[in-house]
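Blackboard transcription, Thursday session:
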Amino acid sequence: DAKTTQPNSMESNEEEPVHLPCNHSTISGTDYIHWYRQLPSQGPEYVIHGLTSNVNNRMASLAIAEDRKSSTLILHRATLRDAAVYYCILVPIGNDMRFGAGTRLTVKP
Amino acid sequence: KAGVTQTPRYLIKTRGQQVTLSCSPISGHRSVSWYQQTPGQGLQFLFEYFSETQRNKGNFPGRFSGRQFSNSRSEMNVSTLELGDSALYLCASSLGFTGADTQYFGPGTRLTVL
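(Written on the board underneath:)
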């Protein structure tokens, strides 16, 4: 299974941008890069996904390296509500998402 | 549109018993996946169903089983419960299984085995 590597934790100040990195050097050509986040006492929530090109949505942006071996989730202005565990996951055809430990993001007021 | 619902939300069982958890996907979604979340092992994939067929299975013993009905609702069953089965069981639904499909998670069922 293709695996991802993320920092265990990161801190950010409120209203500042946050860049959450993810390494996935063994990614295969058909793997999509998905980001989910899990707030305390809730199920994971979809954030964004992409295949090769950078993606933007109302929640975040996803920057994918040209060789696809790494990606970065960008929260443009962190709020206290963005404090969560962020998971970077490679999703092949078949939907069996293999979660890693994720990055715990702390947002300081 | 209603989200993914899971019942019951909380459950307490004793070792050796069996348990059945239920998941109702978002209307129109045909793929349902199940996950187990524990503090020690994190989120682990159990299995995925599409159109009543199990398509993928994670690395769990045969005590863990599931099924999907023609209306896409899914159940998972754990037989001969062990203390280590105490966990949050999450269900997620999606339109398909292309890899590009977004999975929508329910709130989970918290199972405690005494």
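Lecturer's comment: Chain B has a mean pLDDT of 94.
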